[in-house]
């Protein structure tokens, strides 16, 4: 099979070839039809997360090179192990990539994405920037018939992450409340669309790129703001009032500072993005504002299935998407790194 592989951290991907793996036990060999390019792929390519103040979280251990990135995967079954059960090779599947060990308490509770010994496709084991990918069990294959084939795999990360964050936000949202979506990349665009589908909240948006703000308005945002403007907070409070919830899909010092600044008393900030940096707020502000800061990491398998049902019902409209051949993986990563992507880029083997 052909892959776009990480051969050294901090370096470009390279085309590599390998024999097709033979599925064993419950494993399923999937022929990849598309794989989305996610900002997390950039962190994996770099080999670290930025912790601020010049500090880094090294994430290079436990991954043998060459390694295949890509976790937003969709395709068809090519072959299955003897314990996988009957599978229709003509069916189209999205792959839930956040596979756990299946044995620990988190996995038994259905929170495989939080497993301490994960088998996350494209993160800890080879993923979908390839012609084929090995999936550990058919339960991770989610029927994607009737769903935009270009975006089916992306719903398993950017869509699922947004869905889970919106679900967490709902407990802080009164009827006809307000939610600020911070960051309008593929993840934030999904967040805006899913917030519209799941809640009665008035959706607002913020991004540093004017074109992305315009897209958010076209998708139904009540208003869109430039968070870097000197009077950004005042503009939000004047035009929209204090937010009940802000969801930070960037995860940087600047984005989180803005997000918490526009949330009113008793509100919450849900932190999703992994851009990096440090953040501080005087301790008395938490009780005085009754402010909640919460993290949200992708989502569960049950949430993935619920999201796909929502998409199939037509309640979540497709976000902008562009297609590139697998051979252009480096160009796609470069454009994403430069902030030049609206919506999602998918790679097609």
Molecular structure report:
There is one protein chain. It contains ten helices and 18 strands. It is an alpha/beta fold and 349 residues long. It has two domains: 2-157 and 299-348, Medium-chain alcohol dehydrogenases, catalytic domain (Quinone Oxidoreductase, Chain A, domain 1, Alpha-Beta Complex); 160-295, Rossmann fold. The strands form four sheets. Strands 3, 7, 8, 9, 10, 17 and 18 form a seven-stranded mixed beta sheet that branches. It has a six-stranded parallel beta sheet with strand order 13-12-11-14-15-16, sandwiched between helices. The longest helix is centred in the middle third of the chain and has 13 residues, at 186-198. This is Alcohol dehydrogenase catalytic domain-containing protein. It comes from Taklimakanibacter albus.
Q: Helices and strands, in N-to-C order?
A: EEEHEEEEEHEEHEHEHEHEHEHEHEHE
Q: Tell the overall outline.
A: globular
- Structurally, the number of domains stands at 2
Q: Structural class, judged by helices and strands?
A: alpha/beta
Terminal CA distance reads 10 Å
Largest sheet: 7 strands, mixed
**Uncertain residue segments:** none
Question: Any key phrases for this structure?
Answer:
349 residues, alpha/beta, Quinone Oxidoreductase, Chain A, domain 1, Rossmann fold, seven-stranded mixed beta sheet, 10 helices
């Amino acid at each position: 099979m052909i892959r776009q592989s990480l051969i050294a951290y901090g370096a470009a991907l390279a085309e590599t070839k390998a024999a097709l793996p033979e599925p064993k036990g419950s494993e399923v060999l999937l022929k990849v039809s598309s794989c989305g390019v996610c900002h997390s792929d950039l962190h994996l390519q770099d080999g670290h997360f930025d912790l601020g103040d010049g500090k880094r979280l090294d994430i290079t251990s436990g991954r043998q090179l060459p390694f295949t990135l890509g976790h937003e995967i969709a395709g068809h079954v090519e072959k299955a192990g003897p314990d996988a059960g009957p599978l229709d090779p003509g069916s189209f599947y999205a792959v839930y990539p956040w596979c756990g060990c299946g044995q620990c308490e988190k996995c038994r509770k259905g929170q495989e994405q939080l497993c301490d010994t994960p088998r996350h496709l494209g993160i800890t084991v080879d993923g979908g920037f390839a012609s084929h990918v090995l999936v550990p069990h058919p339960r991770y294959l989610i029927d994607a018939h009737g769903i935009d084939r270009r975006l089916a795999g992306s719903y398993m990360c950017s869509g699922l992450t947004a869905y889970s964050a919106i679900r967490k936000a709902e407990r802080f949202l009164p009827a006809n409340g307000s939610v600020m979506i911070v960051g309008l990349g593929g993840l934030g665009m999904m967040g805006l669309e899913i917030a519209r589908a799941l809640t009665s909240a008035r959706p607002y948006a913020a991004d540093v790129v004017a074109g992305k703000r315009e897209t958010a308005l076209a998708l139904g945002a009540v208003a869109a703001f430039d968070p870097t403007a000197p009077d950004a907070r005042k503009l939000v409070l004047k035009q929209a009032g204090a937010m009940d919830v802000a969801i930070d899909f960037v995860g940087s010092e600047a984005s989180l500072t803005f997000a918490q600044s526009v949330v009113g008393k008793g509100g919450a900030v849900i932190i999703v993005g992994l851009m990096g940096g440090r953040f501080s707020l005087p301790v008395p502000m938490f009780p005085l504002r009754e402010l909640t800061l919460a993290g949200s990491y992708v989502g569960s398998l049950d949430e993935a299935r619920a999201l796909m049902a929502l998409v199939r019902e037509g309640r979540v409209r497709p976000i902008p998407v562009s297609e590139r051949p697998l051979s252009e993986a480096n160009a796609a990563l470069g454009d994403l790194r430069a902030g030049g992507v609206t919506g999602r880029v998918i790679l097609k083997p």
